[in-house]
Amino acid sequence: MNALVYTDTQEVTYRREPLPQPREGDVRVDITATAICGSDMHAYHGKDARRVPPLILGHEVSGIVLDGRYAGQRMVINPLMTCGECEDCVGGRSNLCRHRELIGMYLPGAFAEQVAIAERNLLPIPADMNPIHASLAEPTATGLHAVALVERVLPRPLSEAHCLVIGGGAIGLLTALILKAKGCVSVDLAETNALRRSSIEQQDCANCFNPLEEALPSPNGYDVVFDCVGCGATRRSASEAVRPGGIISHVGLQDDAEGLDTRKLTLQEVIFLGNYCYTRADMQASIDMLYRGQLGDLSWIDVRPLSTGAQAFTDLHNGKVAAAKIVLQPDTLL
Ligand SMILES: [Zn+2]
Ligand SMILES: [Zn+2]
After folding, report:
1. Which of 135, 208, 243, 294 is 20 to 30 A (C-alpha) from 22?
2. PANTHER family annotated for this entry (predicted)?
3. What is the number of structural domains in the chain?
4. Distance 78 CA to ligand 2 centre (A)
5. DSSP-assigned states of every residue in 207-251
6. Ligand 1 centre and the CA of 60: distance in Å?
7. What is the largest CA-CA distance in the chain?
8. Does one domain contain both 35 and 128?
């Protein structure tokens, strides 16, 4: 099959690869669309010790199942494989499973024509759902999971909260769109890339500003800050932005540099919430929201052929992409 393989730091190569080998319980899926994730970029930059080249990256996928009981059906893949038996899995927090595995990490991912995945990781989608939109179920689930954790500890309804989203990539934008869908009217969004700011502004879900040139609109004033970047500088900004007793939701995972103001967190009883991935329920809810158009028209997605994937990675690296998301499709489908 044709695949886009991460072959070296800042190098992905479109080439022939053997078909995926299903393990016990796996089915094969013909891929329709795979979105490029921030974590794929992190690997591309050589900064993820878990993703070692040569490796097919990609875990945000929609496709058509080839075998098993769903054969012939359109599906979204839940790329997070969990044991289903441990305390966390049984307790409804499968994202914390100690045996979790992700495709596109140690196992081959989905920047290809086919992928193998456990049958129980498939989620059916409506036959008339746009497969490009469906490939966004995974990042949407990440945003939805973060928002759900925040709602659990917020003392007042989320719709009344003054929120800051740091980072206008797909997770940041989707988080802002989820907040809008939940009735939140007061959302600021920090994004350094002007192309991205202008494409987000068209979605009318947040007031965008450039944190490198403009002052934070409400220092010490946000009930909730979603850090969708997760680097030292953004943790510093999140610490400055959050109000006493407020919540920092840490969604991004860019580095572990210092930045968090633990003194303020302590003196002002700020709640710090870590977020990792999503559960199957979050994935299902995401499919429903995307299908019903609750997150807008999704016109900000940039669709490209898989064979031009190397250029897409280069463009993302150079900050030349206005879209918050690039989705790659096998060339035979375009
Ligand atoms: Zn992802
Ligand atoms: Zn488990």
Report:
1. 135
2. L-THREONINE 3-DEHYDROGENASE
3. 2
4. 15
5. EEE-TTTS--SSTT-EEEEEESS-SHHHHHHHHHHEEEEEEEEE-
6. 6
7. 58
8. yes
